[in-house]
Amino acid sequence: MSTPRGPGRRLTAADRLILLNGVSTFGSGLVYPYTALYLSELPEMGAAGVSVFYGAAAAANLLTAAVLATGWIKPSPARLGFTGTLMLAVGFLGTAAAGSLTALFAAVLFVGCGQGCLLVSMVPVLSSLTSQDQRRSVFARRYQAINVGLGLGAVVAGLTTGFFTTSAVPWLFVANALSYLPLAYAFHRLRARERREEVRVAEVRVAEREETVEAREAAGGRLKWLGTAGALAVLFQLGAYLFGHSQFEATSPLVAVRLMGIGLGAVSALLLVNTAVVALGQSWVTRLLSSRDETFGLRAAVLLWVAAYAVAMGSAFGPQPVRYAGLLLFAVVFAIGECAYSCSFHPWLIDSVEAKDVTRVSALASGAMGIGTAAGPSIGVALTLTGEAFVVWLSLASLCLLLLLTLGRRRVAVRRPADGTAGATPEETPASHTGDTT
Q1: pLDDT tens across 35-90, in order?
Q2: Which of 30, 109, 241, 293 is a good FRET partner for 133, with 20 to 30 A between their CA atoms?
Q3: How far apart, in whole angstroms, are the C-alpha atoms of residue 287 and residue 133?
């Protein structure tokens, strides 16, 4: 659990990074609600511009994550974050100035690669800045900051476009680009810390080369950097976005409007309620789960998402007021599940591999998130072709339960110091041997 923040205590490096990450997502909130609308209205862009923006960004993001996961290039996490934030700034400035599809494509490549670098870097950087017992709180606060930033950005964008229509959107892209610069400076400052750490790690590696053959044999499969534990963590991330996050963002509005007769205003209310619950409830959920291991938190997240789908399914049989109330409750329960996920997944992911491989497993998880985000809505759309809301919700609940299969075994916690160096080799033991009874 993180150290309580007294009135005179200075922000830690992790706190500052989270705060500046929130600032950058505020910039994202300024542009993402209006990007498709703005590009489609430009005579030189149209629908092709929208496809180029989202398609090229997603492809570049996934390619970046794939390259980093291979280990072919091994930039330090802070350098990776610094590079990513600068690329995002350049990319969004280029998007604001783009006057052709070719120029837009070039700018969006910077956006996609920058997103890939930034997403991959945040996990190992925050891990290196915190001790193991602080990670749950730190990653929870980061998720909270991201949601608050996106929500506030969307509100400001709505007010801005209300006064100036979509003619203000290019300036919102400029503001978004500038929002990454404070985060870039924070990563630059962290490079000095990394350089000192690199000297210490080099000394540790020399010592590791002196391990006996017997000790290496005792390590067994851990010499294969990913291993079963890391693979299961990445699979969980894929499933969480295939059957969880992307379904709330894309499928639930579709089902609510087309199959349950809910108005567009109510869909906006669902998103607002979800964001508000995450912003206000994240700290409470994190405290509630602080005495349990991360796999308990992830099981809780999955079961809460299943319960949310069940609530929505039950409301589909009722009259219109019941449907409205049921979908609002669905948004609340789903958000609480998101809170449990956000404070549990990344600490679990970090402990799935050795400290030196956190960047690579983070890259794999980022790629899994990208694939899940891209493919998840297609699953939802296919289910809506049944024409029955309850079939969609029941199917999503059933698919979500599959995530529990990746949590069947858990690792004994590895105590790593704040610098992120590896501690004892974790073992995989049945949950019943660790006090986890869920």
Answers
A1: 877 888 787 888 888 888 888 888 998 899 888 888 788 888 899 999 999 999 99
A2: 241
A3: 12
Q: Which helix (H) or strand (E) holds 429?
A: strand 428-430
Q: Which residue has the tokens 């599940």?
A: 337
Asked whether the beta carbons of 400 and 383 are under 8 A apart, the reply is: no
Provide the pairing of β-strand 409-411 with 428-430: antiparallel
Taking only the tens place, the pLDDT of each residue in 148-200 is: 998 888 888 878 877 766 678 889 999 999 999 999 999 998 887 766 666 55
What are the CA-CA distances from residue 314 to residues 20, 249, 306, 309 (Å)? 41, 20, 12, 9
Sign of CA dihedral 319, 321, 323, 329: negative
Residue 206 confidence (pLDDT): 52
pLDDT single digits (tens) 83-125: 999 999 999 999 988 888 999 999 999 999 999 999 899 988 9
Produce one character per residue of 145-165: b if its CB has 16 or more CB atoms within 10 Å, e if not: bbbbbbbbbbeebeebbeeee
List Cα–Cα distances, 267 to 115, 248, 252, 322, in angstroms. Answer: 28, 11, 8, 15
**Helix or strand run (H / E) with residue 69:** helix 46-70
Q: Give the side-chain half-sphere CA count within 13 A for 210.
A: 5
Measured CA to CA in angstroms, residue 110 lies from 81, 86, 119, 185, 366 at distances of 14, 9, 14, 18, 17
